[in-house]
Amino acid sequence: MKHARVLIDRAQYCLMTLAQQWCMQFHSYMQKSEDKLVTEPCRSVTKTVGTNQSRSISKGQYRFVQANAMQGANSFSSTITRLMSPGKALLLDESLSLALAAARQVAFDWHIPLDRLYLNGHITEGLKEVLPPEGIVWTSKGLAALVHDDDKAEFYKQLHEALRGGSHAPGSLHNVRLRLQDKRMEWRRIDISGKVVERDNEGRALRMAGILTDLHQDDTAAMLHDDLAVTEKINSAILTAALDCIVSINHHGEIISFNQAAEHTFGHASKDVLGKKLADIIIPPAWRERHQQGFERFLATGESTLLNRRIEVTAQHADGSSFSVEMAVVPLSVDDKPVFTAFIRDISELKQAHAMLKDSARRYQQLVDLSPEAILVVQHDLLALANHAALRLLGAHTLSGLLGKSILDFIQCESHALYYQCAQAGLSDMSATGFVEQVWRRENGTAFNVEIGVSKVAYNDAPALQVVVRDITQRKRAEALQLGQNRILNMVATGVALTEILEEITRFAQSQSEHGICSILQLNADRTALIDCIAPALPGKYTKALGELSIQPGNGSCATAVSRSAPVVVEDIACDQLWESLRELALEHSLKACTSWPIFGRNKKILGTFALYFKDAVAPDSDDRQLSGICTNLAGIAIESRASEERIRYLAHYDGLTSLPNRFLFKEYLDLALRNAQRHGSRFAVLFLDLDKFKEINDTMGHDAGDHALREIARRMRACLRETDKIARMGGDEFYVLVEDLEHGRHAADVAQKLLIEAAHPVMVGGKECRLSASIGIGIYPEDGTTGSALLKNADNAMYHAKERGKNAFQFFSTPVANDHDKSSSFKRASTLYRIDEKRVGLN
């Protein structure tokens, strides 16, 4: 910056000196001999103007020279009036031509009746870009053709006033500044000053003389000066706004720069410390002598161990207190003298943070113990820490018995490679990885589905992995139930034989029930017996012996279920009177318990029975009861398929409980939205919604209460959406929402906000007020995925992120903006959570 300022000063000086020389030569020339201005045909004069030695000159002197130059121009024009000869071209002597050239000027003589324009003097390089070569007779039309369109009006105005005489005094000097097009088709600013020097008896202008001045270098110098001023302002602003202290000293050790951050850190005002010794201001007394010795050694030898690296030292505040700082010193050379700039950062808080690490480790273990999620800390594949939730999840008896075991002991072999991938990703980044599904096993060997999130932590001053483990068995089961249901409904819809459909139902039930053995019986036409037993897993002799099972007392659970039109639970066949006639047959084949559910058709018409047999004296658990509801519904649909085509198509695409579209129909909606968005370049959003606290209703009030709550929540959510928006139930308490024609990300947030509010309203179940909430993840096309599966997966991940952080909120996977043309109004990255205020949700 300093070198640039020197160049500008030198350039300004050269220009001003040349102009000053021109004025001096001109005035001397006019005063001593007017005979040196002679009239003869124009000739070309070519010489090089010598350079001047640089010296300083003030702006006031520069303005004075400029004023003299203009006065010289006026005097020059007056002299021309007295000395010019009619019909002759004006010629200047060598010294005056050189003076004009030094000031980037050339004289002109315009013979108006003949429209001949003579140029006199040395034409500078800048003017050669515009004017014809020296010695060439020009015309006013040639000059006018080069004038910029925006300047022509003023040019002609001044010209006409000069020729006419106008309101100015006779022989007045006229001046105009305009842009002329040069040979490179660029515009160059020119100043034209002239006056009429000869008129005829009727006052018509015959000749005009004057000067053309090239202003291009003045413009360039002004621009350079302005750029330098802007640069100085920017550097000053950076120095002021810097977060680190920036302190500079000269070779005497005196402070020459002390920024705002330094004022705040050291407690000194800049004006109070400039010019003072650095050692006396920020260096504690105990270190000042050592500082001075090192400083003097560098000045003498140019060597120092402190320069160009970060070191930790002790500094002193204005109040006399000492604190730790990190400092880097950079040596510079200004005017061949050393200047030292120190970049200083207060690290006293960092030192305190290190002191708190041990306490933090203790508190970390407390938080892990209190977490409701299973958390494991792993070092070298061994369990170093586990909380009580992990103890329960893994089925271990004591923490001491769990610690020290390999984590691989609790992971199914087929998931080992996937675990190591997660571990590697966690070690490479301090942030947590996304949750990944795996199959683990409990201490007793029972397999179960989990999703794990791995992140790098420090435990006992050593690197470790924190593994958060979630049991997703129920979610996976719900997905399997939904897939099985859709598969069977698809068989019904495509006309597969009824026997094959019922066999598939039994196989499906068998895969989902942990201990149950499934059978399906159909009621005969006269409704007196159960026939056509389909039970692939039951012993063949048993099913053959059943034959036609009459609807009468003591004939087992299935016959009783038909007669009662209700489920019948028999936990112990050996002692239950309902199995009096079939007891020996059942026990002979190790069947000790049986629960049967009637299969209903339209208008509660019984079509048959669905039963689960057990080889232990037990009752069906909640999963089996949920499974029975699905299977009896499927079987009823299949049996009535010939008369229920419309019903079949409906259930193939809609959820039977909530009447909302199901996963398959939603996939069709999503595929169509993708094609439309790709064709029209539009955007849309996919919302994944999971109800919070729904399991509590099922567990405490029963599945009927849960079903009622689901239907009510589904009705509300459908009502708060637009006609064009799509909502579907994926199974359990999970829903998808498709919002098309998304103008901006804010609209997706508005939809999510409405859904959260509707979910938060109380639900009356059995006269009791129940409160739910929802966690919502949002994926935006195309930012969060260009395929349906990617969008659904990312919305799912965002939902679990919202659920992790307190539930009752929605979470974007990426960064949608409130307005596509206003990038400053945007949501935060996925770390930002959007939560409703529950106090604002009405109670009625």
TrEMBL record:
Family matches, as InterPro entries: Biofilm_reg_signaling, GAF, GAF-like_dom_sf, GGDEF_dom, Nucleotide_cyclase, PAC, PAS, PAS-assoc_C
Superkingdom: Bacteria
SMART domains: GAF (SM00065), GGDEF (SM00267), PAC (SM00086), PAS (SM00091)
PAC domain span: 309-359
Pfam families, sorted: GAF_2, GGDEF, PAS, PAS_3, PAS_9
Ranges of residues in domain PAS: 231-302
GO molecular function (one): catalytic activity
UniProt domain GGDEF: residue ranges: 682-815
Entry protein name: Diguanylate cyclase
Organism: Noviherbaspirillum saxi
Organism classification: Bacteria, Pseudomonadati, Pseudomonadota, Betaproteobacteria, Burkholderiales
